[in-house]
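Section: Multi-chain targets

For targets with more than one molecule, the full set of components is provided together so that the structure can be written out for the assembly as a whole rather than chain by chain. Components appear in the order listed by the source. The example entry contains two components.
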Amino acid sequence: MKKALEITLGIVTSVGGFLEIGCIATSAQAGALFGFQLLWAVVLGGICVAFIVEQSGRLAAVSGQTIVGAIRERFGFGYFAFLLSGLGLVALLVLAAEIGGVSIALEFATGVGYRWWAVPVALVTWLVLWRGKFGWIEQGISVLGLVTTCFIVAAFEVDPEWGSIARATLPSLPEHDSARYWFLAVSILGATINPTLFFFYSAGALEDKWDETYVGVNRAIAGLGMAFGTVISAAVLIVAAVVLLPRGIEVDDYSQLPLLLEYVFGKWGLVLIVASLAVACLGAALEVALMVAYMAAQGLGWNWSENPPPRKEARFALAYTAALVVGCAVLLCGPDPLQLTLVSMVLSAATLPIAIVPFLFVMNDERYVGRHTNGVLSNGVVLFVTGLAFVMAIVALPLQIFGGD
Amino acid sequence: MNLVRDCLDNRLLDRSGHPVGHIDGIVMTIEGDRQPRITAIEVGSVAQARRLGPRVGRWVERLSTRWGRMRPNPYRIAWSALTFGPHDVRVDAAAADMPVLAWERWLRKHVISRIPGG
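Its structure, encoded as tokens over all components, is:
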């Protein structure tokens, strides 16, 4: 029973890891432009991420190693340096987008422009990490994250055509704006299958002191946690398809997001969208900042844990502090936050193989996972979607840059 | 033992299980006609940088002699002080006394402890 309560790790990973600004933005855009048609990307991303998250938890539980630690050991320092610089840079862009997400929620609530909120939001995020322990960050975000279930209620309220929804879970070719369609499909996959998610989850499993007895529970936690995120992003897409598409509202600015829930809940819609966006993006900002610090610490052999006070692991604390400073600076000097979000999600998809391919080697290595090595299905699903996301990203990025939209 | 697989880049812990770092380099001694012997391992940013290339190595070495806290860098640990386990390597010493953690101690004293709540 006590182990079942560890579901909070699955929910927090889901809330912060993929139910965040990237997911809400890409799902809303996809629904507004293409109706239910891109639902398959949400479902495919969700299934794949559940497989990868399960594997990362299994590695941590069986070997006591995190993904980054194992990759450094198996593939050497040179590869680790490459991984850290590649994923680290993308993570800083994502972090900027998440701080932007909380800031935009505050802009909706107060009318004061988002740039004014960037520094206070980064400061609050830092304070939570500085003073907080892993356990209460995990439980706090999981409980607050339940507010996002308002999207599920909204999806039922708008009374969509469930038949077309079922059909849209299978991929189909676009009838218009095909460049835009593929760019969005990659953004959705990139926002869902994010390295932050499984790096964070494997570190979290060790923070929560999992051992080999957690292999079965881990499967349930990864599955349920990721299903939670998938259902909610699908709900965002469905609401956008019913509410925004017929009115010709393309989500080309974040200020259109409240329309999603205002249509269903009236003036409470604004409150709910502010709360959902703020909680999900705060969770994500915490997670990404921690992930950058975990990655550096686990590959370089520093003390790392979010539980003891910062002086016990000075370099780890400095790493997440520096990540937040850079993320905040990018948001302040950077472009429009919606553009920032979409580009960082596509870059995320493009860099995915750097993390996944070596991870697959580790998951098939008996010296790490003993008799719990990957089966054919686990390997197949991961290879397929990684290849797909990578190819699509290579195609979509130039399309976006050279006027695909 | 397979040196690259079972030693290089493995996690290094001290005698009470605190992290020291990773094994960043392996030192082999060749004396005259005798068979070469593995005598020590190296830990530290300079040993890491040398693995990325000689130029990066020289560059980090210069930075480290000027600004570094860790002396000597790279730090060598005698092979005889190591015990090899399935997932990590133990060194028979206390991490708190080792030069490898010089930056950690410096940051703790001069930066982190000065910030409230640190």
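Chain B has four helices and seven strands.
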